[in-house]
Design brief:
The protein is α/β, with parallel strands linked by helices and 161 residues long. The protein has one domain: P-loop containing nucleotide triphosphate hydrolases (Rossmann fold). It has helices at 3-10, 23-26, 36-43, 65-79, 96-101, 117-129, 147-160; strands at 84-89, 109-113, 137-142. Strands 2-1-3 form a three-stranded parallel sheet, with helices on one face. The longest helix has 15 residues, at 65-79.
Length: 161
């Protein structure tokens, strides 16, 4: 028995597999958006788009991060008619009109207000543990960076100039 076979056998997780044979690594399900260059940015292909995994949008205020997130969520919800969206929100700056603009049915959105990262972490872990792999769920989290971190970034930015 090879060391790879031993490690695979010893794993407590049922989806452990050799990377070259993993269905999670090799089988990608893409959800194209209505914007071809967003698809290229997400997948490297005009016909690609959103796939499973984590996407982080970071930047200054008023730079369309929420719009990009809602554009991707809208595409996912259109592709998967049974899908729902978990929407974690600490900014409370996304009026229902934003969702309407991206043709998102708010009856398919579970809004969870959060005030800190710990709330997000514990609630999201609970949600993920309660899901099956076949559940079609997209998670969007709008987090406000604390003033302390913004101040530190500004100081660091000034030092780098």
């Amino acid at each position: 028995m090879s060391i790879m076979d031993k490690l695979k056998k010893n794993s407590k997780l049922k989806h452990t597999d050799v990377l070259s044979e993993s269905k999670f690594f090799n089988e990608k399900d893409f959800t194209p958006t209505d914007v071809p260059m967003i698809n290229v940015a997400l997948s490297g292909s005009v016909d690609g788009g959103l796939s499973s995994g984590l996407i982080v949008l970071a930047g200054p205020s008023k730079h369309f991060k929420t719009s990009f997130a809602l554009l991707m969520a809208s595409a996912y919800l259109k592709k998967h008619k049974d899908a729902v969206m978990l929407f974690y929100d600490s900014e409370f700056g996304s009026p229902q009109a934003y969702f309407k603009q991206f043709d998102i049915d708010t009856a398919r959105v579970l809004h969870t207000p959060i005030v800190n990262v710990e709330e997000l972490k514990f609630d999201l872990i609970g949600q993920l543990e309660g899901m099956d792999r076949k559940d079609n769920v997209i998670v969007v989290s709008i987090l406000l960076v604390t003033l302390h971190l913004r101040k530190r970034w500004k100081i660091q930015s000034m030092r780098n100039q």
